[in-house]
Amino acid sequence: MTLSLCIAQLNPVVGDIRGNLAKAIEAAHTAHAQGHQLLVFSELFLCGYAAEDLFYRPLFLEDCAAALQELVEASCAWPQLQILMGHPERVDASVHWSRDSDYVPPAWNAVSLIGNGRLQASYRKQALPNYGVFDEKRYFASSTAMAADQTADGAADVAQIIEVGGMRLGLLICEDAWVAQPALQAKAAGAQALVVVNASPFVLGKPQQRAQVLAARAQETGLPIVYAHMVGGQDELVFDGHSMAVQATGELVALAPGFESLLWPVQLQAVAGTDALQWQCQVPAPDWTAPEHQAWPQIWRALVLATRDYVQKNGFKHVLLGLSGGLDSALVLAIAVDALGADKVRAVMMPSPYTASISLDDSREMVRRLGVQYDEISIREAFETFKNSLSTQFDGRAEDTTEENLQARIRGVMLMALSNKFGGLLLTTGNKSEVAMGYSTLYGDMCGGFGPLKDVFKSDAFELAHWRNAQDSSWGVVNPIPLRIITRPPSAELREDQTDQDSLPPYEMLDAILRLRMELNQSAAQIVDAGFPADRVDQVVRLLRINEYKRRQAAPGPKITARVFGKDWRYPITNGYRG
Questions:
Q1: Residue of 6, 23, 43, 281 with catalytic role
Q2: Which of 43, 109, 292, 556 is 20–30 Å from 433 (CA)?
Q3: Quick one: which of 457, 455, 448, 452 has its CA closest to 555?
Q4: Number of separate domains in the chain
Q5: CATH of the domain at 93
Q6: Residues 40, 167: one domain?
């Protein structure tokens, strides 16, 4: 006995219910034509993940329900195919909740089995993540809490078993697989295999971590698992795909490509002479040490996908950015070209009195290699005009960072003017180290709608640039970044002979301190005990604290590390704590 499954590893758009339904119908036509028996979509595919406060709008939930019903009716066209669809389901606000509070979340996070014109079964998520970037208890009711409220002893068994092709499958939704109980409940209810539908944001190393978690669930239950994941960028989050199949032994037997939309077939087969099931896959087991699973290609693919989806899903046709001759703007330019193509990218160089000739030379060489539209607009005259206009007010005061910031703000005004006039999205070029330290100008180089490097430390940016230059033509333009851009000392070029290290610790030290502070929440004393100079630690901790007001006004950018500024960094601006 064999069950043919097809995983719809696709890229939904949050709130585009009609568009997501159309993708689902197209995928069902294809899966049916290929003879599959079960088509599995990702968590909340119908509305996109994460729809956030859209869940509070009753009409939004009604529209999702209507689209689900359309899919049910359309399923009559695929008589041999059943569909597992992730969707929100409106909670009846009259339900009494006795366990935690009187708050009634607006929706269930559900997955439903559809086939032959009927909604055959539904499962509601039990484990609701409420940490990091997740706020699921804000939006969703837990089926465990609800079921327990309706029983006399407060215990609940909410397992859902479906039968497809003569095989009994237990359903789980994302976080349900990260804790033991839901999978064990499905086993106790008679499941022969587990199907997990997911929307799990990418961070570096997450695919390997998922495989470890699923291996643990498989070994605890003795059941094989298929994990269906989504792909795509959504504001600050990136979803990487990497759907997978795991045997009952915990062995990872197949891994779908990462950062790609596709229909991925796997087969679940009965083991002769037993009740056991195992996966039959054409894809070999992944080698986590292989180049495609190493850090830099995963990071690059995540940044490219996030940039492409942010631009296209928000209706922009092209992008522009300020090119400085430095590493960060060069990296953003290369990412933009890989994401959108050279014909949709415009680079603008805006030299000031302090711009080095090699910065101009290197910028011209890079745009020549990439073939993008390129303009040079001097800010010298505008800079002098601003200084003359302010000369009476500034009389008797030496030039300082005020004049440096004026140059950045003139550039920001010009870039925003080009964005307004021609309709392109302005990309910001700041990296995570600079964002952390406030080493950027509010309403200057912080102007823009999306920051591809927002979660990339400067020390990693150097490595990422070297890696991209080493790739062959299958990745795009070969050797896009002139070597001197990578190797010369970084400088904002806002005064004579300026370098970043005039103001900041060496980037290797800075980034190491930031990782300990941001990801491990270590105190200044603990970081000093780890071997870092006390004066540098105090400087970094102070700058990180006092620049929160800037970060609140910064453009969004893709999360690739354990903690990104934005969704999972939530510090008060007004903050008297010094620990």
A1: 43
A2: 292
A3: 448
A4: 2
A5: 3.60.110.10
A6: yes
Q: One digit per residue, pLDDT tens: the chain, 579 residues? A: 899 999 999 999 999 999 999 999 999 999 999 999 999 999 999 999 989 999 999 999 999 999 999 999 999 999 999 999 999 999 986 655 545 567 888 999 999 999 999 999 999 999 999 988 999 999 999 988 655 454 444 444 678 999 999 999 999 999 999 999 999 999 999 999 999 999 999 999 999 999 999 999 999 999 999 999 999 999 999 999 999 999 999 999 999 999 999 999 999 998 877 778 898 877 777 888 787 788 999 999 999 999 999 999 999 999 999 999 999 999 999 999 999 999 999 999 999 888 888 989 999 999 999 999 999 999 999 999 999 999 999 999 999 989 889 999 999 999 999 999 999 999 999 999 999 999 999 999 999 999 999 999 999 999 999 999 999 999 999 999 999 999 987 666 666 665 656 678 999 999 999 999 999 999 999 999 999 999 999 999 999 999 999 999 999 999 999 999 998 899 999 998 887
The CATH number linked to 311 is 3.40.50.620
Is 447 part of the annotated catalytic residue set? Answer: no
Same domain, 356 and 415: yes
Annotated catalytic, 70? Answer: no
| pTM listed for this prediction | 0.93
Helices within 323-455 (DSSP H only)? 327-340, 357-370, 380-394, 401-422, 432-437
Q: Which amino acid is at 399?
A: E
Q: Does 437 lie in the same domain as 380?
A: yes
Residue 372 belongs to what domain range? 296-500
Dihedrals φ, ψ of 552, to 5°? -65, -20
User: Which residues sit in the known binding site for L-glutamine?
Assistant: 131, 200, 206
Residue 206: exposure state from Cβ atoms within 10 A (0-12, 13-18, ≥19): middle
The answer to whether the CB of 50 falls within 8 A of the CB of 199 is yes
Catalytic residue from among 6, 23, 125, 567: 125
511 inside domain: no
Residue 387 annotated as catalytic: no
Q: Which tokens is 423 given?
A: 């309709």
